[in-house]
Amino acid sequence: MNKFKGSIAILGSGNIGISLAKGLVKSNYAEPGQISLTRRNISGLSALAEQGFVVSDDNAAVVANADIVVLAVLPQQLNNLLSQIEAVVDDKKQLFISVASGVSCIDIRSKLGENVQVIRAMPNTAIAIGQSMTCVATDNATAENVAEVIRMFETVGSVVKINEDLMTSATALCACGIAFFLRAIRAASQGGVEIGFHADEALKMAVQTAKGAADLLLLMQSHPEQEIDKVTSPKGCTIAGLNEMEHNGFSSSLIKGIKLSAIKAGALYTKE
C-alpha cells in the first residue's frame, strides 16, 4: 500500500476513532506519528501515546496542522466541536470525514464554510477487529478524496460508496445491524441450552454456525435461499424449524426493527 504523506487528526477518539487509527498503522497506510488523537480527558490515550501516536486535548491546534480531519464524536457533541475548530479550517487543503450519525455534509459545511470538502463514513463496531462494513457518501468531495477515504476505511473492513440520502438507512442496516445479528446468535445459543447443551458450548456452536453461514455467502457469492435449499429436505427438521420461526414473525420482526432504527437514526442530530 502507498503510504499517506500528510497528517491525520482524529477528533473524539472513542472506539471507532482508535480502531481506525490502529488499522491505518497496521496496514502501513500511515505511521503513528502522522496521526493525532484528541479526547477531553487524554489520560485514556496514554497507551496510544506510548505507541507513537500524537495525543492532545486541543482540537483547534491539532486541526490547524492536519490534512485529513476525522470527526468521530457523537452527533449531540458535534456542534460544540465544530465551533472549536471553525477558525482554523483551511478549505484549500483539508478534507473532513464525519462518522457522526444523521449529520449531513451540508450540516457540517454550514458551520465550517461552504467550500469545505466533507465525506461521511458510517462504520460499525466490527471495525475493532478489521471487519467493519463501512458506507461512505459525499455531495461535493472530489473523486480523488473519495478514493482516499475508501482506501483509509478498507484498512478496517469492507467499504461501499452510496448516495448520501441513504446514509441513515446504512446506519440501521450496518451499524445497528451488528446488534440485530448478535441478538439472533444469542437467541440461538439459548435454544441450544434448552435442547441440552451447556451455555458456553451452545454459544460457541451458535457463533461458529453464524460465522459459517455469513462466510458461505461471502465466499460462494450465493443467495441465502440457495444455501437454505441445501439444508432443507422434504418433511425434514430444518424446514419445520424455519417455518415455525416464520409463523412467529422472524423475518417480519427483523425487517420492522431495521425500518424503525432507520427512522430513529435520522433524528439523532439537531442543527442548533
TrEMBL record:
A cellular component term, taken from the record's GO annotations: cytoplasm
Domain (Pyrroline-5-carboxylate reductase dimerisation) ranges: 164-264
Pathway the protein takes part in: Amino-acid biosynthesis; L-proline biosynthesis; L-proline from L-glutamate 5-semialdehyde: step 1/1
Reactions catalysed according to its record: L-proline + NAD(+) = (S)-1-pyrroline-5-carboxylate + NADH + 2 H(+); L-proline + NADP(+) = (S)-1-pyrroline-5-carboxylate + NADPH + 2 H(+)
Molecular function, one GO term: pyrroline-5-carboxylate reductase activity
Location within or outside the cell: Cytoplasm
Keyword vocabulary terms for this entry: Amino-acid biosynthesis, Cytoplasm, NADP, Oxidoreductase, Proline biosynthesis
Residues given in the record as NADP(+) binding sites: 72-75
Annotated family: Belongs to the pyrroline-5-carboxylate reductase family.
Name of the featured protein: Pyrroline-5-carboxylate reductase
Species name: Pedobacter hiemivivus
Lineage of the species this protein comes from: Bacteria, Pseudomonadati, Bacteroidota, Sphingobacteriia, Sphingobacteriales
